[in-house]
Every structure is written in structure tokens, then in C-alpha cells.
Amino acid sequence: MKLKEIYSDKTPKPVISFEVFPPHSDYNKLLKEIKILKNYNPEFISLTYGAGGKGGKSFELLQQIKSLGINVMPHFICITSSKESIESALVKMEQTGVENVLALRGDIPDTDIKHYFDFNHANDLVKFIKDRTNLSIGVAGYPEGHIESQDLFSDIQNLKKKTEAGADVIFTQLFFDNQKYFDYIEILKKEGINLPVIPGIMPIISEKQITKMTSMAKITVPHIVREKIEKYKDDLKSLQNFGIDYATKQCIELIEKGVEGLHFFTLNKSYSTSKILDNIKGEL
Ligand code: FAD
Predict the structure, then answer these.
(1) Could you tell me which CATH class the domain 14-279 is placed in?
(2) Which residues line ligand 1 (CB under 6 A)?
(3) Is there a catalytic annotation at residue 43?
(4) What is the mean pLDDT of residues 25-43?
(5) In 3D, which of 100, 103, 95 has the Cα closest to residue 43?
(6) Ligand 1 pocket test target in 61, 139, 158 with most atoms within 8 Å of CB
(7) Cα separation of 33 and 29, whole Å?
(8) Domain residue spans in the chain?
(9) Which of 27, 127, 132, 211 is the most buried (most CB within 10 A)?
């Protein structure tokens, strides 16, 4: 089913979806986790494209996930890809029954990775995909603004270019402060962006993970989260439990406010995401 239909009235809300990334080796471990996550009836699983252009073997994994009977949404990044390679990958995807893609520019690569100039921004990629395929297209949105943009407003003007180029759904960067998401939705509406804006939820599982994410992106870490990370930095189990409770509360509030979906950044582990979904079962 295409994103457009998934987030229309045809599907019960909120739509549950998961993001995984291709591991360096041993797909079996990830596939085991995915089999557990399948019990939660995801509408699709999205598969990231290796940051820095390392996308190589993910097609094989995509096929394996599909063979479990789960819809897939591959991510495409254009900064490290040529038009030719993107076009042939898109053809291959459509031929194997993929209906949705997440179109991204990707982070500006390190100097040792080849940087193509066929596409400057994700809106160019969205237009390219729209012109050549019947794929339904998701794009990224940043409730606190993208790290390179001067301010949230200019980032939203650039998001508009992606929607005008043909995006169907916006998937957000993770956030820990729901108010940032609610404010974002309000601004998008005022700016005439009326697509579904699906919140990205990332359960906290380690201090390292939070430090990495918050150094790469503009993400407010509320005081309570900082406090618990500090308190449990040597006690992973307690930190993980706090992460589950925190994300559960986030999800409950988001559901109460009528979100159309919840997209979980699973970090290739089923445990925290499953617990959160168990906790919110009554709300779904
Ligand atoms: P763009 O939309 O091109 O935006 C990048 C910057 O340029 C922004 O500051 C924007 O305001 C500005 N901009 C956009 N369009 C224009 C324009 N036309 N003119 C001038 N300025 C413009 N990264 C990966 O490597 N692999 C992944 O699989 C991956 N998955 C992701 C999934 C989600 C849900 C999200 C939120 C992010 C993901 N990322 C991934 C990270 C993403 O690649 C980076 O955030 C990247 O820096 C920006 O990608 P983008 O598609 O948002 O770029």
C-alpha cells in the first residue's frame, strides 16, 4: 500500500511503523528482532541508507524483510549518488514491488567519500522520483529546524519545496519535547503544509546514543532526561526502563492529540519499542 493510502482514512490510526538500519554483518540477528516487531502489525518498515553513502548491500536485506510479509520503505540519499545510480535503483525497487521511498539529501559527506552534484537538495530528488516513477514519497521534517538552517522558518520554507515537488508524507526527526512537535504542526498548517507529519520516536537506550544524536542534530534534551541519563549512566537497565517510560508518555500524549502515525527509530532492537507498544496497547 502506498503512503498516501496508508495515512488516509483507509487505515486505522495511529499507523505503526519502524525504522531499522542495515547492520555491517549478520542480518539474521536483525531479522530475529524484526520477527518480534512484526507482532505489533507495522504498516511498513523503513530501511535507512548508510550515512556517508554506504548503501551497498541493503537491497538484499530489503528483500528479506519483504519476504517476512512486511511492506518496506527504503531510504534514498542523493548527495553521494549519481542520477544514473538512483534511477537504476528506483527501477529495481519498483520491479520488486516497493511502493514507497523516503527521499533524503543525506548529510554532507566526509572528504574521502565521493560527493555528486546531480542533486543539491532533497526537493531535487523528490522531483526526480516523481517524474520517473509511481512511488509514493516520504521526506524528512525537523521540528526544531535542521542543523544547517539559520532558523526554523527558513527550514520550513525549504520543506515546502519538498512538498511542492511531490512529497506525500513528512517523517520527523526524533524529539523529546512533544511541545516542539505540536508547535511545528501549527506552523506548518499556517504555511499551508497539510501533509501527514509523522512523529519520529526514539527510545533512550544509552548515554552514547543520546550524545551522538544530539551532537548531529538540533534536539532539545529536557532537564528530566538529562538528569536520568546522568543518574543511570552506569546502569543501562535503569536507563533503558526510563527510556521506555519516557517514550510511552510521549506516545500517549501524541495519540491523545490525534497523530496519524508513530514511527519508531528502533536502533535494530525490538525490546524497548515492544515494551512501549505493550504500554500503549489500550490507546491504539
Ligand atoms: P534537505 O531537505 O535537502 O535539507 C538539508 C538542508 O538544506 C536543510 O538545512 C534545509 O533547510 C536546506 N535546504 C533544503 N532544500 C533547500 C533548497 N532548495 N535551497 C536551499 N536550502 C535548502 N541520513 C542518512 O544518511 N540515511 C538515512 O537513511 C537517513 N534517514 C533519515 C530519516 C529521517 C526520518 C530523518 C528525519 C533524517 C534521516 N537522515 C538520514 C538524516 C538526513 O539525511 C540529514 O538530516 C541531512 O542532513 C538532510 O537531509 P534532508 O533530506 O532533510 O535534506
Answers:
(1) alpha beta
(2) 48-49, 51, 75, 77, 104-107, 121-123, 140, 146, 148-149, 155, 158, 161-162, 171, 173, 200
(3) no
(4) 95
(5) 100
(6) 158
(7) 7
(8) 14-279
(9) 127
